[in-house]
Every structure is written in C-alpha cells, then in structure tokens.
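B., you asked whether I could sanity-check this one before it goes into the benchmark set. Here's the sequence:
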Amino acid sequence: MDIVVLAGGISTERDVSLVSGMGIYKALKQKGHRVMLLDVFLGYEEDDWEKVFDMDRDWSASVQAVKEEMADLDAVKALRPDWKKNFFGPHVLDICRMADLVFMGLHGENGENGKIQACFDLFGIRYTGTDYISSAICMDKGITKDLFRAGGIPTPAGTRFFKGQQPSEDIPFPCVVKACCGGSSVGVTIVQDEGEYQKALEEAFRYDNEVVVEQYIKGREFSVSVVDGKAYPLIEIAPKEGFYDYRNKYQAGATVETCPADLPSEKTLEISRMAEKAFHVLRLINYVRFDLIMAEDGSFYFLEGNTLPGMTPISLMPQEAAALGISYEDLCQLLADLSLRED
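And here's what the prediction gave me:
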C-alpha cells in the first residue's frame, strides 16, 4: 500500500508526534509498504510531490533534522505566516489523497480534536483511528466526563467553566485543575489550597479558554487500550516522582510501567469490561487508550480517552500489545488494517 504517516503539527505535543511518526514510518516500511512521513504543518514544497511514493528516500531523516532544528513552536509557525488561513502545509492534502491510507501519528489539538478527520472525510481520504465526532468528544475532557456520567462509567466528581466564569460547584481540596482540551498532561496541576488553585487556573488557561476542575483521587494510575472493542492488558504507571505529567510520560526511566498490571484477575476483568463499555459510550471506532485511577479502597475512576495514543518506543499502547505477543510492527499493521475495513 501507499501510506502517509502524518505527524508534527503545532500542538504542544509536536515533538512527541514526530517521534511516534518516525516509529510508525519505519514499522510500515518493514512491512513492505511504500511510506511517506509527512509533517502536516510544514508539508512538502518540492515540485515532484506527485512522485513521492516512487522515491527510494529515507523520509525520517528529513523529519529528524526539522525536529532538532525547530523545537520552538513559534519558530515553526514563523515558517508559514499564512497558516491561520490554511493549517495544512504545501501539498499535504494532495499527497494524502494519493495514498491508500493516512496513518495518524499526530497528538494534541490539531490531530485529536476531529478537525483533520472531518476534512479527510470530505475528501474521501482513509485514515487510522476514530472518526471526527468521537475525536472531538474525547479531546474535550468536560464533554468526556459528562458522557462518562451519563453512560455509567465511574469518573471523579468535577466541573468545567470558561475563563471569566465562576464554577457551578465547588470541588474541595485537594483537586486537579486541567485545560479542557489539553494533551499529555500539559496544563494539569494537582492543587492543595487556594493559592495553588489560582496559579493552576492561570496555567490551565494558557492552553485553553475552558478548564476542568475535578476531585483528586489518591491511588494507583493505570492505562488500558481498547482495540476493535476489546481491552488489551492493563498497564500500571508508577512515576518515581510526582504524577504522570509530561516529563514522566516521555523521559526514559522516570516512570515504572508494569504490564500486565499486578491486580487480582477479577479486578482486571472488571476494569477491562468497563473500558470496553466506555469505548461504546464515547462512540469510538477502531482504537483508544483510557487513563484511570484506582483508589485505595479498590474503586476505580476513568479520567479520559486518548484517540491517538502515543506510538513512541516507550509508549503505553505498544507495551500493552507486546504483553499479548504483538510486536510493534504488527501493531502498526493491525491499526492500519482496522481502518481500511469497509463500513
């Protein structure tokens, strides 16, 4: 197949997306596909774009060079002063339309919020992951929480409000303040008192005009992927310091990850069945990764769904697949195959 691995962008998770994209690109190349690794924002400016799948070229090398030279988002945006009028970089849509499939290696705002998926639907472009509606639902932590409650999925008590508004209910300390549409725990703070709360609000509002304030649950952190409606083995996440924030997510050695998680079989089954239910409550398609907390009394709470989970070498979903004997390369092929099924 001719496959575009779409990565990069201008979200706060740009760097992680490029690492995911390079891993996916190499895996699909090993599977024998003709693959192009493409930055959705910077695009491809050469005149030979109609022949990109015929080129014997290591696309990851050029993306790696851009990643190292352009770590500053403002510097990336400066390369395309007109980007607010057209988010897609040069020839991105043209190349994606030529491909049999676009493998979504994007993370964060533009990529997980459903806008790119909706555009691809209008152009008849096939892509991995879920559709635009469920992408938008999961990107908004407030809406996700509302649907969890309505669907009987346990989730911490919480409220959401826009900048300049007052919350509709008071959440006692300690609590968690998070940007409503942030990713990779960017803009997330655990607060203990009023002083910390105000600082946390300022931080969260840097990333979004709406915030979620929710009950803090002290306990063990877990993640579980659901692929084609079936839960993968649970993975426990134990940061050596603090909580599972951006640094602990992506700095090697910062977190102890155990898969399968050390839990009684009946508890594992209970969480797995609830994850599969949550998959349907959020009307997801193909795959997702859920984050959850288990309190000291054994009760558990779902926090959010990640519709384009990380695919870096240390990401959680590949670790869960490995526990089932599914290699990284086979996982990438599986996710591609699921997305090519006829509706």
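One thing to flag: The chain has a mean pLDDT of 90. Otherwise nothing jumped out at me.
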